[in-house]
Amino acid sequence: MVRQAYRASIFHLLGDPSDADAAQYFEDGVLTVENGHVAEVGAWPELAPRLEGVRVERFANGLIMPGFVDSHVHYPQVDIVASRGSHLLEWLSAYTFPTEARFQHKEIAAEAAQFFLDQLLRNGTTSALVFATVYKDSVDALFEAAQARNMRIITGKVLMDRNAPAGISDTAETGYQESRALIRAWHDKGRLGYAVTPRFALTSSERQLELAGRLLTEHPGVRLHTHLSENHEETAAVRRMFPDCPDYFAVYEKFGLATPQSVFAHCVHLAPGEWARFGKSGAAAAFCPVSNLFLGSGLFDLAAAEAVAARVGLGTDVGAGTSLSLFATMGDAYKVCQARRHSLDATKLFYMATLGGARVLGLDDKIGNFERGKEADFVVLDAAALPMLARRLAQATSPADRLFALAILADDRAVARTYLAGALAYSR
Ligand SMILES: [Zn+2]
Question: Please, what sign has the CA dihedral across residues 379, 383, 385, 389?
């Protein structure tokens, strides 16, 4: 048995912060890890007597937290981040499609996958739900890279058989066959998971959406990952293309894609009736504030999602998002909610970036906090690398104040170390 202990301040959440006892903060805490899993977490003075003979690593002024969860991101789009353009639909044709076309070459996909995972770890992100491209090889490339690092990644082949250039389209049949082969090869292998991934309603035929629904029923446990109601031109086009569906969400409902395994990115312009059905379906939403601001898509209504008890995580949505950092994403989530007169505290922000994200991905029995037996994915934060943050923290009046300043001001420089299942995977 390999046992290891880490001493620093420790913060994690045992549940949704609407429960007053959900947050646990230990000023002088210790996390013990056994064979890659959490053994214990608590106050150092309490646990120290039981740790005789155990190697204790101490991080003075450090803060240990669960690794971050990115609920929606596109790995091939690391090459088009910060591309100036118009709104969503033009952005897809101008940047996304030409770039993703290059991923038919496995060596290009493999290099980008390594870079992408390196950057996730540098930002303290230990799990992600990821769009690959339409090419099967690009999915294999990301799974291979994630497997080599023992990293919790869920991804899938993009399904796209209309309204896209011929070179990067599949057909309903090939999309189904290749997805099935990928599910058999990768789903539930080690820490990997598969998501059936239609890009969005506009780029799939009715037949393709029907087969996506079939993949879900044939493979219980496989996720559904797509976009929903991101911008006004998009929602108007969906109404034209699916005249028999009363609204956008109804398209996914019609084909059996609105399930508790489903994660919908954006959900910016859902009508009250759509939110009500969204809540009933058990589906989850990925709130992507950086991307929504960058493309001018709109302001996500977190209160509407909470009113129907929908699970909500945070997505960086790189490349329309401009940072892989969950800190940048928490900062913009706060500002978007402020503009909606919904004021968030630090526990809510960190909840969406950790346990809330794990719940969105259906992984909260494995990751998201430091409950005994969970996989030890965690970060060690150290504010000393950011002079402004360090100065602000020196004035902090309470743990809540300290965490709030951290959520708003930190970036990848604050991530000193990232651990995957108890193993050091990144060190600054
Ligand atoms: Zn996206």
Answer: positive
